[in-house]
Design a protein that fits this description.
The protein contains 2 helices and no strands. It is mostly helical.
């Protein structure tokens, strides 16, 4: 029973080390954003309040996909 517990813990630690990856200094981690985003127009009834859409996170067709 004890040997099996050590075996499971050892495998978990091994998987943890395998999953960890050294960060590459030259690797660009910034998301690739296209400059050509198509705005998405929301059609809603007149009795709904106007949506407040932040300027730094606009609704786009590409974001809806």
């Amino acid at each position: 029973m004890r040997f099996q517990l050590y075996k499971i813990i050892s495998l978990a630690i091994l998987f943890l080390f395998i999953a960890c990856k050294k960060k590459n200094e030259n690797e660009d981690l910034s998301p690739q954003v296209s400059e050509e985003l198509t705005p998405y127009n929301v059609n809603y009834p007149n009795y709904f309040p106007t949506l407040s859409i932040p300027s730094n996170n606009p609704l786009t067709i590409e974001g809806k996909l």
